[in-house]
Design brief:
Order of helices and strands: HEEEEHEE
Largest sheet: 6 strands, antiparallel
CATH class: Mainly Beta
Helix content: 10-25%
CATH topology: SH3 type barrels
Low-confidence stretches: none
CATH architecture: Roll
Number of helices: 2
Number of domains: 1
Amino acid sequence: MPKATIMDIRREVENYLGRRVKLEAHKSKKKLYQKEGVIESTYPSIFTVRVQEDKRKEQKLSFSYSDLLTQSVKIVLLDENETDGALLVS
């Protein structure tokens, strides 16, 4: 199976603009956080995910495509029923 490249990952992320995702990211060596949000924008080197913290607070997180390539960030697409879907990049 061929390895994914940065361009492959970028194209895949662009295909899922506006879709709900669950993301898992390493904050530090021992800390991991999980959030749900919507892929909002893609740029040449990064993409952004809008996360609803609570009813009044919204946060925008940005990640590089290399974060997905190195698996320091993992993204899972959520389907309409809010259940786990396919892993965006494997």
